[in-house]
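Record 1 of the preview.
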Amino acid sequence: MPAALALLDGGHAELDRERADIRRALGAFETVVGAPAASVPVPRRAARIGEVAALVGVRTSQLRLWEVRGLLRPTRSPGAGYRVYDEAELRAAQVVALLRRGAYPFEIITAVLDELRTTGSPQRVRAELARREQELHRRSLRRLRASAALYDYLREREPLGMP
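->
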């Protein structure tokens, strides 16, 4: 019985973690959408890493780290292989910098960037997060019903040891 209860508790804890992740992702997304448009001048041509670092207000080493983590996807210039950031990647760097300043973890930043890159629309990102929240709600209710059924079953089988 203790092992079964531990599994049940673990399942509920996982749902709680997912719910917290959705809340954090939505909070991060709202931070990005609600932030005033940066008054960073957008270069007319693709920018190299030093220029992007200066525009965003971070070190080049941070941009490289964010690239290694998959947050940024600069292209490489032919020949020299320099990192080259187009307008979309400059905006992604601004988003990452904003969210890191807000102490958001990399997992949440990745989720926000993925949604923005996939949908391109703030309304669609909100709708997707709301859809995930509803699915989590349904899963939570199913788990609650299963827990109640398990409790009833165990109470019938072991009436003396159960409240």
